[in-house]
Design brief:
Blueprint lengths: L1 E5 L5 H8 L4 E4 L19 E4 L1 H7 L6 H21 L4 E6 L10 H20 L2 E6 L2 E4 L2
Parallel strand pairs: 1-4, 1-5, 2-3, 3-4
Antiparallel strand pairs: 5-6
Helix pairs in contact: 3-4
Length: about 140
């Protein structure tokens, strides 16, 4: 798996498109488990997963951070394994939101926590992590 992370409008999509021009793209749907993304996997075809921040925003209605965290960890591991079996590169595009002003609203602070945990889990699974800023791509891992 590869993770591309950066701020809004930083050039992540362009960076992924130039590296994986034949990829299938899948947007996470609110309320759907991450594992449902495996339906978009195809043999020998990269899969790009987008919409992480919005997907996590929809998860704010659930009160149990630990349960959410454990579920997406299991789903991410299974998704990576399935992609490997199909020889399909798996790419996640995530929005970095931790470098700005800390919001006053508790739910917005919680969203940033969830996003941070998700990207840490994705980083742990990733073979490559790319930080994109101003259209420049820097390898982090």
């Amino acid at each position: 798996m590869q993770l591309f992370i950066g701020g809004a409008c930083a050039g992540k999509r362009n960076a992924v498109t130039s590296r994986f021009p034949s990829a299938n793209w899948h947007r996470l749907e609110a309320g759907q488990p991450l594992i449902d993304s495996q339906q978009a996997l195809a043999a020998n075809t990269p899969l790009v997963i987008t919409g992480v921040l919005e997907w996590l925003d929809a998860a704010l209605e659930h009160d149990d951070n630990d349960a959410l965290h454990q579920q997406w960890q299991r789903d991410m591991a299974t998704l990576c394994q399935r992609a490997d079996e199909l020889n399909a590169a798996l790419i996640i595009i995530a929005t970095e939101v931790g470098r700005g002003i800390v919001p006053m609203q508790p739910e917005q602070r919680r969203l940033r926590d969830l996003n941070g945990w998700f990207t840490q889990d994705a980083t742990a699974q990733a073979s490559h992590v790319w930080y994109v800023r101003h259209g420049l791509v820097m390898a982090l891992q």
